[in-house]
Amino acid sequence: MAETIDRIARDLKTREKSARAVYVPPTNLPDPTPEPGFVYRWVATHVLGQAEVTNVSRKMREGWVPVKAEDHPELMMVGNAQTGNVEIGGLMLCKMAAEKAKARDEYYDQQAQNQMDSVDNNFMRQNDPRMPLFAERKSSTTRGGFGSGSK
Predict the structure, then answer these.
(1) CB 62 within 8 A of CB 80
(2) Closest CA to 41 of 110, 111, 112, 105
(3) Are strands 65-66 and 38-44 parallel, antiparallel or unpaired?
């Protein structure tokens, strides 16, 4: 007879899982360390080598403030030589107070909703009770066969 060999069930064995190095490509624009109460956004200062002064001035009037390179050393970059702002490839990092950004987002959401309501109202003017266009905005799904269903 063969000698008995002490075997341990495979699920009872433990082995060290070797951590594999996973490559993640760097992003083109670094993320600043979040500051409580602020949101960040990259604003275009140049497009195809041409200065976008109207875009920058509009963003400043909305409340976006340029971020200074010295305020975010984790980005490891020297600011614009003239202004000291964080700029990469025609984009400037700006910040805004979170509550102001939320109010701005709500305003534009309301604008979009008003436009949708206007389109719906214009469409529904052509509605005829004998042949309604649609009754309400919701969808449903059914399961089963074609027609009146299988019995």
Answers:
(1) no
(2) 105
(3) unpaired
> Is 38 within 8 Å of 98 (Cβ atoms)?
yes
Which tokens belong to 53?
């002064």
CA-CA distance, 104 to 133, in Å (whole number)? 35
pTM here is 0.60
- Per-position b or e across 12-50, b if 16+ CB within 10 A of its CB: eeeeeeeeeeeeeeeeeeeebeeeeebbbebbebbeeee
Q: Are 96 and 38 in contact (CB under 8 A)?
A: yes
CB–CB of 32/93 below 8 Å?
A: yes
Q: What is the pLDDT along the chain (151 residues), one digit of tens a residue?
A: 556 666 776 666 666 666 678 888 877 788 888 889 999 999 999 898 888 889 999 999 999 999 988 888 888 777 777 788 888 888 999 999 999 999 999 999 999 999 988 888 877 777 777 666 665 666 677 777 666 555 5
Q: What's the CA gap between 89 and 30, in Å, rounded?
A: 12
SS (H, E, C) 5-47: CCCCCHHHCCCCCCCCCCCCCCCCCCCCCCCCCEEEEEEECEE
Rounded Cα distance between 65 and 93, Å, is: 8
The number of residues in the chain equals: 151
